[in-house]
Amino acid sequence: MSRNIATAAIRGAHSIVRRAEKRLQEALDTLGADHPVELPNTGYYLPVIYGITGRKVTRLADAEPVLALARELLPPLPARERWTPYLGPALDAGMATLFAEEIIEALRYVTGSSPGGIWLGAADDVILRERGIEFVDGRAPGFAAVVGAAPDTATAVKLAREMQQKNLYVFMAGRTDGASFAEQLAAADVQLGWPTRLVPFGEEVYAHIFSLGFATRVALSFGGVSPGDYHRVLMYNKDRVFAFVLALGPVTDEWYATAAGAINFGFPVIADTDIPQILPYGVCTYEHVVSGVPHDRIVARAVEVRGLKVAAAELEVPVAFGPAFEGEIIRRPDTFVEIGAGRAPAFEFLVTRPMSEVEDGRVQVVGPELDNLGEGGILPLGLVVEVAGRKMKEEFEPVLERRLHYFVNYLEGVVHIGQRDIVRIRISKKAFAAGLRLRHIGEAVANRVKAEFGSLVDKVQVTLYSMPDLVLTEQETARAQYRRRDERLGSLTDEAVDTFYTCSLCQSFAPAHICVVTPERLGLCGAVNWLDARASYELKQTGPNQPVAIGTCIDEVRGQFSGVNSAMERYTQGKITALNLYSMMENPMTSCGCFEAIAAVLPEANGIFIVNREYSGDTPIGMRFSTLAGMVGGGEQTPGFMGLARAYILSRRFIQADGGLPRVVWMPRQLKEYLRAGLLRRGAEIGIPDLYERVADETVGTSPDDIFPFLEAKQHPALSLAPIM
Ligand code: SF4
Ligand code: ZN
């Protein structure tokens, strides 16, 4: 006996529309027709309704005609189950269901019963901008809308990992016998949330309207589809967003109805239980419903049905691997070992060698492995990647090297921060217990370098140094090369070029952040200068570094250019419309999280101080680097505070609009030493040859009261500059 899907969907749709009508009536009775209705922080109203019908629901009264439309769409309830050879009526029922569900979920926000706990509810437009773009640029092929629950926690975790590994977003809603997929994952301590791509929307199946609302907004915002052009909204999703419904557990009428809504978007349903299948018809070339698929095959089957192109990395490591793990967080108590982090030297370095010197695929650990360490250990590390290839050029080295950050982060249970000789890696206890070792980091890196830069790199070998003395000597070699790279820019000035470059590499961490890289201002990580960005663009025209035609100069001193402004506006979706390249006080550059140092205003001294990442003591405003980092990061313009690369401090253009180098009144000794030669040279150039000695450090003090007498005694130039604020 097989139930007729169309009949069940129509029955479910009737029940959901009825429920929406009842809840709307209750809200109208208690709150009145003019009471506002909105989902949090979105310009797309109730997005499915807006996208499909063009109607803006902003008050309770606006929801009435929408539900009337839903009712109109509802096919009559069939008196008895009967086989219909085509899906038409079920699709209408599905659309009616979506309108009703969107109103039900929006009413939760009106009545103060919006999702809480692990349930995240509607995604706002910030999330849409951050995450939706990944569906467009291919970082995420699409999403799985999971309904119900797996038979047990272990199966849930396995399925989630499998989908994460295919870079899919996993949207979750609905229950089976009181259990939900999201709660099963939470019970197994799996990190939920947008950064790990495991997104619990709500407890009831209706909350999947947020999956479709997200898909609709992707079509409207990135696909340029006009609201109300329902055909294009649906086609965009069918063609561009590779999504499917994963139905776990017995399928109820309401699930059928919701699934019929999803089928309108071209999203097929894959079920683990035995329900009637629906084979391709009309424009669709794939099955609409595939049922009875065992759990160990269900993700693979979904991918096959929907035709996802997932590049399978043939990498054998004991943990999962893929961009979905980039956003992971590993807290200190969960950390097995910490590498670098200012407590031990740690660097990464990619270099080209002759073909004969590289043994392809060789990964070597020179020094202790993780097994030789106790929990809570600190390890030094030199990650040295040697590549060879006929097309490889020296100028591509920094471009490939900057990607090591991402490749290491792709490992589940490994978090990588920083670049060059400021590297910090955390390895979780879980990953260690699963068998992850240093060697696997090397294997992951070798694998990705070949996979992503195969056109350049014929051979790659990776050496991980973990013996302190070797790390130090190898680090010197690397540093000499970092310096050569920085110097290669030589006397190239900003006026001498007509193109700057953007860098959006850090958007996977700080989605709104863009660096603008000019000859005289390198990216704030210190690892992407103008030549690197140019080489990166040459390598991949659709990559993270895009050329910016400078355009006309709006403000020479502040460094504001029409072309830069419009590029910022474009790349931040209108969030930032003006950027001053040479000021930290007015429309400054935003920061992600990888800055080598932070500059902050010290009003009492009419100057600024700069603190480097390695310095963990107090600064003159009583905050440590880590606290300041939390303030400047996240892609916001924060006048008075700015993340920067150490090398930028020595640039002629360093905050020239705010007074330049003479503004710097305090730096940690370590940073001063690091910049010593440069500070002496720059000091001489600007007529303050002893500037180096006039800058205070922590040995003078870490409060304005302590350092002020020093600045006065040294007649620090900042004291006689125009007021900084
Ligand atoms: Fe690019 Fe800036 Fe990130 Fe460096 S910090 S990788 S320049 S976006
Ligand atoms: Zn960054």
Structure description:
Helices cover 37% and strands 15% of the residues. A hairpin with a 4-residue loop joins β18 and β19. With 725 residues, it is an alpha/beta fold. The strands form six sheets. It has a six-stranded parallel sheet with strand order 3-2-1-4-5-6, with helices on both faces. The model has no long low-confidence stretch (mean pLDDT 91). The termini are far apart. The radius of gyration is 28 Å and the shape is globular. Iron/sulfur cluster binds at residues 402, 503, 505-506, 515, 517, 523-525, 527-528, 592, 594.
Report the average pLDDT across residues: 91
Bound molecules: iron/sulfur cluster, zinc ion
Summarize the main sheet: 6 strands, parallel
Low-confidence stretches: none
General form: globular
Helix/strand/pairing category? alpha/beta
How far apart the termini lie comes to 79 Å
Fraction of residues in β-strands? 15-25%
What is the count of β-strands? Answer: 23
The DSSP helix count reads: 22
Q: What is the assembly state of the chains in this entry?
A: single chain
Q: What strand order characterises the main sheet?
A: 3-2-1-4-5-6
Main features:
725 residues; binds zinc ion; four-stranded mixed sheet; binds iron/sulfur cluster; alpha/beta; 23 strands; six-stranded parallel sheet
List the helices and strands and how they pair.
Elements: H1 5-31, H2 47-53, H3 60-73, H4 88-110, H5 125-137, E1 143-148, H6 153-165, E2 169-173, H7 181-187, E3 198-202, H8 209-221, H9 230-240, E4 244-248, H10 253-264, E5 269-271, E6 289-290, H11 295-306, E7 335-340, E8 346-352, E9 363-366, E10 377-379, E11 381-388, H12 397-409, E12 414-419, E13 422-428, H13 429-433, H14 438-453, E14 459-465, H15 468-488, E15 499-503, E16 515-517, H16 530-539, E17 545-549, E18 553-555, E19 560-561, H17 562-571, E20 597-602, E21 607-612, H18 625-632, E22 641-644, E23 664-666, H19 669-674, H20 676-685, H21 691-694, H22 704-713
Parallel strand pairs: 1-2, 1-4, 2-3, 4-5, 5-6, 7-10, 8-11, 9-14, 21-23
Antiparallel strand pairs: 7-13, 11-14, 12-13, 15-16, 15-17, 18-19, 20-21, 20-22
The structure holds iron/sulfur cluster and zinc ion (ZN).
